Give the backbone structure.
Amino acid sequence: MRDMAAGPRVLLKRLRELMAEPLEPQERLDRIVRDIAANMVAEVCSLYVLRADSVLELYATVGLNPNAVHLAQLRLGQGLVGTIAASARALNLSNAQEHPAFAYLPETGEEIYHSFLGVPVLRAGRTLGVLVVQNKTMRHYRDDEIEALETTAMVIAEMIASGDIGRLSRPGLELDMSRPASFTGLSFNEGVGLGHVVLHEPRIVVTNLFNEDSEEELRRLEVSLGSLRLSIDDMLERRDVAFEGEHREVLEAYRMFANDRGWVRRLEEAIRNGLTAEAAVEKVQSDMRARMLHMTDPYLRERMSDFDDLANRLLRQLMGRGPETIAESLPKDAIIVARSMGAAELLDYPRDRLRGLVLEDGAPTSHVVIVARAMGIPVAGQMKGAVSMSENGDPIIVDGVEGTVHLRPQPDLEAAYAEKVRFRARRQELYRELRKKPSETKDGVKVDLLMNAGLAVDLPQLAEAGAAGIGLFRTELQFMVASTFPRAEAQEKLYRDVLDTARGRPVTFRTIDIGGDKVLPYFKGSVQEEENPALGWRAIRLTLDRPGLLRTQIRALLKAAGGRELKVMLPMVTELGEIAQAREIIDREVRHLARFAHHLPTSLKLGAMIEVPSLLWQLDELMQAVDFVSVGSNDLFQFVMAADRGNTQLADRFDTLSVPFLRVLKQIADAGIRNHTPVTLCGELAGKPISAMALLGLGYRSISMSPASIGPVKAMLTELPLGELKSFLDDNLSGPAASLPMRALLQAFADDRSIPL
Ligand code: PEP
Ligand code: MG
């Protein structure tokens, strides 16, 4: 019996030799199509490459008229070749002329060929061209021949991606692969970054496409599949942790896929055809992605991303690659491009090489974005298609101001952005100068500009940004970036480091605020799945029900703050009883430590966050019950407006500077003054100069923001005649003004007075 895999294997071996030879690109392509035709006993073999103008151009042929090379062309969707490219599916026809899509190109002389096999040239699910074989006789190509042609197409895809074939393109008719592309999404963090693409889930760089020994590769695949299955079983069996609900479902799906015979068979087949195990995973995944691209069923699309993730895991197993080795090969100006990403994963990248982050999904308040903000890197999100259009090493610009991304930018655009970066650097210099000036409005009112933090990476920024202290230390971030609960000693160490770095400047520690959108994968949360997690078992509700968690944290805080002032703040308070309960736990810990003669804080202040609207109707009682309050405007706004803060469809729908919300904020500021209780605001609102200006006008004298915002807010503040703004706001907010365009009015107020916003 004929060894079915011998043909493809011989062909791949030939291709490997051809790739290694020092040939001109056209010569190499010509030899490749000749070898494919010979190997497949076909009279014709042609390669069409997709150009940036969506035209498929004949790049090489044996059998068709050689003069048609670089002349014959078809639009995407036109003819058989255009149909294959548009659908990303192979066509196998014994009589091509009878196919309804057949389009006759007279310059090629192809009318004498009847049978036709065409496959898309795919890379990461993206079509780069079409590879065709034809025969005069009417025949139907076998499955193994289709497979062989697809495998060959993959090699060609790598040649296109490497830029080798692109050198043959004429000016103005560049390949689709090198086409500049721009994306518009949302700005998640300000700043502009120029650099080179680093795909977060790296597509394998197929330096090693061809295997030397199929049996050995099959063994490697088996071993890696084995460890992959084991690791999934392992995760599923860890019943003590939080692999319930969604997590569990995803893992069950992974387990099913990892044992899917069809998948494994396709992988093995690709290896038998001569690919390495890595290249086989890439090929099978790419075929599958291309087919699924046209599917609209959200469930199936979701499963596809599970499959993608699984394939990536398998690749990592095969390549023995962890985050450390990825970081080593990082360019100096890395811009990470990812579908979505966990906060901990971002921290695996060395900060000094990161110039930006591009996310296909995500929301401005998701945790990876919070961490990116803490690291001070520009972030643009909701960039649909950015991952599949990018290649590692592509030049890229992230514009975190406009919320745009430019991939493979034209030189003039790149030059304009380089100028922008220089301009921003000059402005940063200006902000540094401002640090020496007192934090006062133009009419001499002192304002505390504090910063938000939560991780050790934030701490150097305290001095750099010139913050008056830390207005919100999000202690849950330490929990979120860990893989198990941080031990009491680790918590204490972080808190001590924070206080040491602050050197007497005030620091407000918020007790862990988990639940809702802040999930700890290792924490088995609520027994039942929550339908509305934002309104669910989270923050203080959760810690009062699990007092062990709170006690450990309070003890760590008390010890770390020995001999200094300690400020503790409770998140998501809904009723005053919660404060009393927390105070009891704190008092007990204080008594406990005192009994064992621990060095206690010199003073202990307890505060509450105002995030739940119920507090708005008990502001005076609240102010009397605590030592200070801080407005969490992110949550307060989402609950006042009934608009999920993570839902990007609602991101621009309601305005934080609308009259009703400004009135809410004013009520809180007034209650603070009335009760002599210090009020701070620590949501994202504090960090935008225009909203920070409004806050000052409403009576806030202490606001806390990401460190990068302190410079711009201070620049605004020192030019602000606060008295004028106050009367302006009083006038506008007290009358029947519900539909006033407050944002525009505030902007005009600033413009008239040359206040930089
Ligand atoms: C807020 O809700 O405004 C806030 C500061 O807390 P977080 O963003 O951590 O929920
Ligand atoms: Mg909050």
Q: What stands out?
A: The pocket of magnesium ion (ligand 2) is lined by residues 571, 611, 632, 634-635 (CB under 6 Å). The first helix runs from residue 6 to 20.
